[in-house]
Amino acid sequence: xxxxxxxxxxxxxxxxxxxxxxxxxxxxxxxFDSTFPRQEQDxxxxxxxxxxxxxxxxxxxxxxxxxxxxxxxxQY
Length: 76
Hints:
The protein has four helices and no strands. The chain is an all-alpha fold. InterPro entries: UPF0346, YozE_SAM-like, YozE_SAM-like_sf.
């Protein structure tokens, strides 16, 4: 079975401290979230964590967009 990176590992590729893009801001903030589930790949578990713990995420739509990009990248 091929290696599949975690969502967090993928998200860290989107970081850009100079960007105002929503996905980059999500990644920038998640980097400093010490309790972020760094090895998780499951959308439901990630969504539940973010809904309960990520005050830095203004909209779950941002997570949805990031997770969609993650799924697309993992298909290759």
